[in-house]
Amino acid sequence: MSIVVAILFIFCLLLIFAAGAVMLRRHRYRLAMAAGAAGLLLVILGCIHGYRVMEEQVVSEYNSQLNDDPRDVLENRYRQAVDILRDVPFSKPDRETVMKAADLLKPFSQEQVAEKMADTCPDTEVLRAYADILKLVSAYDGHLTSWNVAENEELQEMVQKIPEDYQGTLADQIQPVRRVLLAMKAEAEKQEKLDAENQASHDRAMREGRDGRLRPGDPEERIPAVMGRPDHVHASQAGGDDIKQYMFNRNGKPVYVYTKNGVVTEIR
Question: What is the pLDDT of residues 188-219, one digit of tens each?
Answer without folding.
Answer: 998 888 878 777 776 665 554 444 678 899 99
